[in-house]
Design goal:
Layout lengths: L1 E2 L5 H8 L12 E4 L3 H8 L7 E7 L9 E6 L2 H11 L4 E6 L16 E12 L5 E18 L5 E6 L8 H20 L6 H8 L3 H11 L4 H9 L3 H53 L1 H18 L4 H16 L5 H15 L12 H11 L4 H16 L7 E5 L6 H12 L3 E5 L6 H5 L12 H9 L5 E5 L12 H9 L7 E2 L6 E2 L5 E6 L7 H5 L1 E5 L5 H19 L7 E3 L1 H11 L6 H19 L7 E3 L1 H8 L17 E8 L2 E13 L4 E4 L4 H16 L1 H4 L11 E6 L13 H13 L7 E3 L2 E2 L5 E2 L4 H10 L4 E5 L3 H6 L9 E5 L2 H8 L5 H10 L1
Parallel strand pairs: 3-5, 9-14, 9-15, 10-11, 11-14, 16-17, 20-21, 22-25, 25-26
Antiparallel strand pairs: 1-4, 2-6, 3-8, 4-7, 5-6, 6-7, 7-8, 12-13, 18-19, 19-21, 23-24
The structure holds adenosine-5'-triphosphate and magnesium ion (MG).
Adenosine-5'-triphosphate binds next to helix 14, helix 19 and helix 21.
């Protein structure tokens, strides 16, 4: 086979450069043309033989006037060269269309080749040979006259066609220029070529020289060889060169880009090294490194779940690359500190012992039977089915009835950590879910913060005042809360600051609220509501004796033997110094008494036991704060006792009205809401409509000649709701009829213009308030009967409930019978 293997590049280059390949050596036979010059001169002018041996070339094309080194290994070709060397030394080199073929036949060979004289032959011991052939002229191959032992064909010369023109000159110059540009960008082209090309003036020879040196496709090389018109050939070559130049330039561009990237990287590395050295010099490097090492260690210890670990590692490596002075450094460090402090995998073990839980709950709270039962059931389910998410409890009730402290007890019973957050007044979603790290001073939201404080991923987590969450333009915290509380999605709670999912599904959430109504329905939906109501005087006494007192004695550093409260004293404290549904203030007042006694003890003035009687309590606590409401009641007509429901539990309220000469105006005062004002108007309309029955003796135009003033005093507490309608109508009826309202009766209910009495809410609270105020009879809408039945027997046995459907019945129960004399007198006054 014949080819121009890549390994022969050196050889070829040496030839072109005018050098000589090394010859000689053991086992190497070198055959040289005795006088190549002479042989070539011989050839010149003489016509070529009609037929010549054909030497196929593999993937190379040679040109006239070129010295081509060839490696000859195929036996057929070896024989050819051997024969040629012993004869005319002339052969024809022709390229093969199918370079893969070992021994191409006539069909696979191109029709145009180059005749040449073998200038030198070296036999290599392995039987192959290296041959150097001097190309002489272009020939067309005609008919093949032999194929064995090698190809022989008839040939005819194909001389150049040159038409000298200025275009040819220009083209020549152009090709020379382009090539000299290319040569710089292509490493395989030797520098000497530049000189050679510059020195060749003959356009045809120039073409051959360049085409032979360039690595372009065999097809293109052959195309250049076959083109006899030198002008056309030059143009074609010039096109090829232009394309190659573009490739070279593009390559150079890419190269320089890569280079500059690399240089940038190196520069950075270099600067960083310098920075390190400077930091070390300043003693900063160690500190910083120590900090990073510490963080790394803490990340290791924090046993982060995979997704968190990834994030932590990523941030740590960013931190390492930042100078401590960079603003981001602090941000990332804060972030990492949060990451490692969170209890990703810290868990306390639950103590699911129902008996034990019962004991703890009883030890902390008096009564609350229903609530405790529910909590124990809850724990029982947890015990039997530990991975069921379980409902979220929501304790609803007035302040101070033990909602928060029950949560604490549950945590104690379960042996879990306890955390409490208050979402009252929270309007910004970010408070719950945190701010993104891009904010200055960003922090995780309150949920994640509380978990960090808890130090375990399964604490009892109390969300206080869930009914007082707001919403504004900063987003809706309720929807964030929803995500926290929904067992279906809280296993992947995402805090904006962490920007990672945190599993809240093992947290035991308990929400608390004073009212159910303001809680958004979707939130209510996810919680199981447990109602706690206010305490009766009796219950408060119990709680005080068994829970509040021992605690306050201990907290104030007293010994139980140093102080003793009588029941009467406790009742007096509750009555005169507090007005509440729960026991928070009660406890505070008891605390105040204990503190004062503690001071006496500390001053050494206490000997024996301090006995607290009502008198002693009053002495210690100062002027009483609250008066029993009955005392303020008057026997005059125009005042009725209503029952209201406020955030501090039920309350007794008095509706007062009076009339004065005027033009039929209605004035309403006492911090009343719109709904309550409308009730007042409805009440007045009804009373006006029934004037003839209620006050037959009044002149018909009485109302148009009088202004009515309705006032609801007490406590500057804003009041609203329709449930005072009944009391207002009664007060007005009392006013016009002159019949006073019985002072042992209180009432509640909404009214319609036709005098129907509609049901209202908060029956239990109102009932307790009535009892506290010493009321004996409560007038209630018939349809609230069911609510009354739900109040434990002992909380209502002191009260008589009167159920009504319309205002007429109310007045029958409430108004004293008409006393002809007073009525006449009073009406006369009016
Ligand atoms: N049944 C009870 N037995 C013993 N102590 C009680 C009982 N109810 C309430 N307390 C005590 O009353 C105090 C106030 O209770 P707590 O703070 O739990 O009220 P709360 O219902 O959470 O009120 P708020 O709605 O204002 O948050 C606590 O010290 C609590 O121990
Ligand atoms: Mg609370």
């Amino acid at each position: 086979m014949e080819r121009d293997p890549a390994g022969d590049e050196e050889l070829r280059r040496a030839e072109i450069g005018g050098g000589d390949p090394d010859g000689g050596g053991p086992g190497i036979e070198v055959v040289e043309t005795p006088d190549l010059e002479e042989a070539l001169r011989d050839r010149e002018g003489k016509p070529l033989p009609q037929a010549l041996p054909i030497l196929p070339l593999r993937s190379t094309v040679t040109y006239p006037d070129t010295l081509t080194p060839l490696a000859v290994g195929n036996p057929r070709s070896v024989k050819l060269v051997d024969d040629v060397l012993s004869g005319e030394r002339t052969l024809v080199m022709v390229a093969s269309r199918e370079p893969e073929l070992e021994e191409p036949g006539p069909d696979q060979l191109y029709d145009v080749g180059v005749a040449g004289v073998v200038a030198r032959m070296i036999k290599v011991p392995d039987g192959t040979m290296r041959v150097l052939v001097q190309g002489t002229q272009r020939v067309r191959i005609g008919e093949y006259i032999a194929e064995q032992p090698y190809l022989v064909a008839r040939i005819s010369e194909l001389p150049d066609v040159v038409e000298p023109s200025s275009e040819l000159d220009t083209l020549t110059r152009n090709v020379q220029n382009t090539f000299s540009q290319i040569i710089e960008g292509i490493p395989y082209l030797p520098e000497e070529l530049q000189l050679a090309v510059a020195n060749v003036d003959d356009p045809s020879a120039l073409c051959h020289l360049i085409a032979g040196a360039m690595r372009i496709s065999t097809e293109e090389k052959q195309e250049l060889l076959e083109e006899v018109d030198v002008g056309k050939r030059l143009r074609r070559l010039s096109e090829i060169l232009a394309r190659e130049l573009e490739v070279v330039q593009l390559g150079a561009q890419i190269q320089s880009q890569v280079q500059s990237e690399m240089e940038k990287g190196q520069r950075e590395y270099f600067l960083r090294e310098q920075l390190k050295a400077i930091q070390q010099e300043l003693g900063e490097g160690d500190e910083r490194q120590a900090e990073i090492n510490e963080l790394r260690e803490r990340i290791e210890q924090a046993a982060l779940p995979e997704h968190a670990r990834k994030a932590a590692d990523r941030e740590l490596s960013r931190l390492e690359r930042l100078p401590p002075a960079a603003a981001e450094y602090g941000v990332i460090r804060t972030y990492l500190e949060w990451m490692v402090e969170l209890p990703w995998s810290v868990e306390t073990e639950d103590k699911l012992d129902i008996e034990h839980a019962r004991e703890v709950l009883d030890a902390d709270h008096y009564d609350l039977e229903k609530v405790k039962e529910r909590i124990l059931e809850y724990l029982a389910v947890r015990k039997l089915k530990p991975d069921s998410p379980g409902p979220i409890l929501c304790f609803v009730g007035p302040p101070g009835v033990g909602k928060t402290s029950l949560g604490r007890s549950i945590a104690r019973a379960l042996d879990r950590k306890f955390q409490r957050i208050s979402v009252g007044g929270v309007r910004d979603e970010a408070e719950i879910r945190g701010h993104r790290r891009t904010y200055i001073g960003a922090m995780p939201g309150t949920v994640i913060r509380a978990l960090r404080d808890a130090g375990s991923r399964n604490p009892v987590f109390m969300i206080d005042e869930i009914d007082k969450m707001g919403a504004d333009f900063r987003g809706d915290p309720a929807s964030a809360m929803l995500e926290v509380l929904d067992p279906a999605q809280n296993d992947s709670f995402r805090d904006h600051f962490l920007d990672l999912e945190f599993d809240l599904s093992d947290v035991l959430f308990i929400a608390t609220a004073n009212f159910l109504d303001p809680i958004p329905p979707p939130l209510q939906d996810r919680m199981e509501v447990i109602q706690l109501s206010g305490y009766t005087v009796d219950e408060k006494l119990h709680i005080a004796k068994n829970y509040l007192l021992p605690r306050q004695i201990e907290e104030n550093g007293l010994r139980p033997s140093q102080i003793e409260f009588t029941d009467e004293a406790l009742i007096a404290i509750g009555d005169e110094y507090t007005r509440e549904a729960g026991v928070r203030n009660f406890e505070r007042q008891i605390g105040t008494v204990c503190r004062k006694i503690a001071r006496e003890a500390a001053e050494g003035k206490l000997d024996g036991t301090a006995k607290i009687t009502p008198e002693r309590a009053r002495e210690l606590l100062g002027p009483r704060k609250f008066f029993a409401e009955q005392a303020r009641r008057t026997k005059d007509p125009g005042v009725a006792t209503g029952l209201a429901w406020t955030p501090v539990g039920g309350e007794v309220l008095f509706v007062e009205c009076s009339a004065m000469a005027g033009s039929g105006k209605l004035t309403i005062t006492g911090q009343l809401g719109d709904v309550m004002k409308e009730s007042a108007e409805a009440a007045l309309s009804w009373v006006r409509g029934h004037q003839s029955e209620l006050a037959p003796e009044l002149p018909e135009d009485w109302f148009s000649k009088h202004d009515i003033h309705i006032h609801v005093p007490s406590g500057a507490v804003p009041k609203d709701g329709p449930s005072a309608g009944v009391a207002m109508a009664t007060a007005l009826a009392s006013l016009v009829s002159g019949r006073p309202v019985a002072n042992d009766v209180a009432m509640t209910g909404e009214i319609t213009l036709t005098g129907q009495v509609l049901p209202i809410g908060g029956v239990k609270e109102k009932s307790l308030a009535a009892q506290r105020a010493g009321i004996k009879r409560v007038i209630l809408p018939e349809r609230n009967k069911g609510d009354v039945e739900e109040i434990p027997q002992h909380e209502r046995e002191e009260l008589e409930y009167l159920y009504v459907n319309e205002l007429g019945e109310v007045l029958e129960h409430a108004l004293h019978p008409a006393d002809q004399e007073t009525t006449a007198r009073q009406v006369g006054q009016r």
